[in-house]
Amino acid sequence: MLEIIDVACMRGNRVLFSALNLTVPPGVLVAIVGENGSGKSSLLRLLSGLLPREQGRIRWNGTDIDALDDDYRRHLTYLGHLNGIKDDLTPIENLQISAELFGDDRSSASARGALQAVGLGRHTESLPTRVLSQGQKRRVALARLWLSRRPLWILDEPFAALDDVGTALLTERLSRHLDAGGMAVVATHQAIGVRSESLRSLRLSG
Fold first, then answer.
1. 29-66: per-residue pLDDT in tens?
2. Which pLDDT score, from 0 to 100, does residue 14 have?
3. Disulfide: which of 9, 37, 72, 122 matches 68 by Cβ 3.0-4.6 Å?
């Protein structure tokens, strides 16, 4: 379980949010909504341990994430709003490098299966990623979720650049993750079609 207790975040001299409290139990997705600049991405980076907080505590299964350090990060998968892929590498190579960095299954068969799961067939898996469309590049980045067995997913605008088919595939993967007892915190500008009992929403006003 992830707990956010009285957390505050600033950008320069501006308070993005303060006195923020949130609990994310197993099987629940929390959608973080709000206007651009309201602090959605900053909150996700705080939860991922990538950004210092001004005050408050973030706890994973009852222990402060600062005390857990790398052990906490071994339980989460973070995807930023940028794809984080290398244009000169193929989709399979990108996935294998990412999997090796984050301790996921890096075998060719697993990478190929993840790409097929997001709708990228054999005709694209060996091409340089730079020749793919923006939607296809986003699918390459999201294919990491098909390799991840980590319980906590922190995702920044994962539906950006996806068409209806890609949106449906990602929604299904999120649903299966929640059904298996996983957790997710997702910054988004659009509705997420998981079951209502698995969905909570937090609006940041900035």
1. 999 999 988 999 999 999 999 888 889 999 999 999 99
2. 86
3. 72
120 within 8 A of 90, measured Cβ to Cβ: no
Buried b (16+ CB within 10 A) or exposed e, 67-84: ebeeebbeebbbbbeebe
Alpha carbon distance 158, 146 (integer Å): 14
Asked if 186 contacts 33 with a C-beta cutoff of 8 angstroms, the reply is no
Terminus-to-terminus CA distance in the chain, angstroms?
26
Model pTM?
Answer: 0.93
Please give the structure tokens belonging to residue 90. Answer: 């193929």
Amino acid identity for residue 179 in this structure: D
